[in-house]
Amino acid sequence: MSTKRPRNAAQTRADILAAARQRFATEGFERTTLRAIAADVGVDAALVIRYFGSKQDLFATATEFKIELPDLTGADPDDIADMLLPRYFAVWEDDQSFLALLRAAMTSRIAADTLNETLAKHVAPTLMGATPDHHLQRIALTDAFVIGLAATRSVLANPPVASLSREELSRWAGPVFRQLLVGPAPL
Amino acid sequence: MTATRPRNASQTRADILSAARRRFGAEGYERTTLRAVASDVGVDAALVIRYFGSKQDLFAAAADFAIELPDLSGVDPDEVAGILLPRFFAVWEDETFVALLRAAMTSQVAADTLRRVFAEQVAPKLITATPDNPVQRIGLMGAFVIGLATTRYVLANPPVANLSRDELSRWAAPVIRQLLVGPAPD
Questions:
Q1: Residue A162 to residue A155: CA distance in whole angstroms
Q2: Which of A126, A133, A166, A136 is nearest to A149 (CA)?
Q3: Angle between helices B165-181 and A166-182 (to 10 degrees)
Q4: CB burial class (10 A; 0-12, 13-18, 19+) of residue A87?
Q5: What is the 3-state secondary structure (H, E, C) of A33-54?
Q6: What confidence tens digit (pLDDT) does each residue in B75-130 have?
Q7: Which tens digits make up the pLDDT trace of A46-55?
Q8: Label partner for A101 (CA 20 to 30 A): which of B9, B26, B42, B141?
Q9: Residues in chain B within 8 Å Cβ distance of A187
């Protein structure tokens, strides 16, 4: 059972990405080394470089998260939270890439820029289908709320928020999404 | 003018705390060493231990900050956000809070400290404003505040980081109002 067997390339790539997420999340971007990640997986650092390139390239691959957001053009404002939150839950709670990126972003400018750019590239265009004005501010404030929920629930694990069911959280968060995305802009 | 002179104990304590905040903020709790903090200040690690005790004690001292929130009982719901937001800005712009926030994302000890500050200093005051579901309302309000602080001061995401305090307050006020005193979900 403990006999070593040759691993295939796909498995090794997946192992390297998992080890990288773990390291970047707990040690941050700057302090993580390719050598340490390679050692976690039991391969040579040269192999990591061959598969993924530089540390920054590996970071980008390991923390790239997919978020599939529905088209919000013409959506009833009251439905927006219910349309978005299941997709957000999938990213925070079922995918380690986002949390690794968020954790690394707390102590690294490079990681923070990656997170900001990812939100601008993959989240903002969809949310823009819902916003009537002040698009960038509304979207970034909505992102801030989402980051706060994700951090409180999945990183800090603050019991009052962590113990809400997804459905309860969705009902509380609904009016906030509505206000930030489509509510009256401040004068 | 660069001649070294003996420092007094209270200045040294203050220097150690400020170095500790920088280290804990930049490197997180686990990776920060008393030796590194001591060397930033030019003292011996034994002195840091004598003044503050263990690393966990030093962290608690460095991350200890007071949030002064007013009693909100009887306050007009429309005024709650306007009363709270200036206090929140004062906390967010305090380097101790930002150090704690950064460390809390990678360390259980720091996360526990952040939760305790919130539970002991923030929640008891906010509870006086909530009409029902205090635990949920205050927890969600805390999540919003953490999200804003992270986005503005740590990630520095431009659309939020570039808002003036006044603009951010006007965007945040209806959310705070909704979470603390707005209609609860059915």
A1: 9
A2: A166
A3: 140
A4: middle
A5: CHHHHHHHHCCCHHHHHHHHCC
A6: 898 899 999 999 999 999 988 888 889 888 878 888 888 998 899 989 999 999 99
A7: 999 999 999 9
A8: B141
A9: 170
Selecting from A119, A147, A172 the residue whose C-beta is nearest the C-beta of B147 gives A147
Q: Which of residues 30-69 of B touch A (CB under 8 A)?
A: 30-31
A153 touches B: beta carbon within 8 Å = yes
Taking only the tens place, the pLDDT of each residue in B167-178 is 999 999 999 999
Per-residue pLDDT for A119 more than 50?
A: yes
Report residue B133 as tokens.
Answer: 């579901």
Distance, in Å, from the CA atom of A174 to the CA atom of B154, rounded to the nearest integer, reads 26
Provide the H-helix boundaries in chain B.
9-31, 34-41, 45-52, 55-62, 77-92, 95-104, 108-117, 123-126, 134-149, 158-161, 165-181
B28 interfaces chain A, CB cutoff of 8 Å: yes
Q: How many CB pairs under 8 A join A and B?
A: 151
Instruction: Find where tokens 């008393």 sit.
Output: B34
Is B127 at the interface with chain A, CB within 8 A? no
**Segment B125-175, tens digit of pLDDT:** 999 999 999 999 999 999 999 999 999 999 999 999 999 999 999 999 999
Residue A4: pLDDT over 80 = no
CB contact under 8 A, B157 and A175: no
Residue A1 has pLDDT above 60, yes or no: no
CB contact under 8 A, A148 and B144: yes
Judged by CB atoms within 8 Å, which residues 61-120 of A form the interface with B?
Answer: 102-103, 105-107, 112, 115-116, 119
- C-alpha span between B49 and B57 (Å, rounded): 9
Quick one: what percent of chain A has pLDDT higher than 90? 58
Scanning the structure block, which residue is given the tokens 């970047």?
A: A24
**Residue B6 pLDDT level (bands cut at 50, 70, 90):** low
What percentage of chain B carries pLDDT values higher than 90? 58
Partners of A102 on chain B (C-beta within 8 Å) are: 105
Are A20 and A59 within 8 A, CB to CB? yes
Are residues B185 and A139, on separate chains, in Cβ contact within 8 Å? no
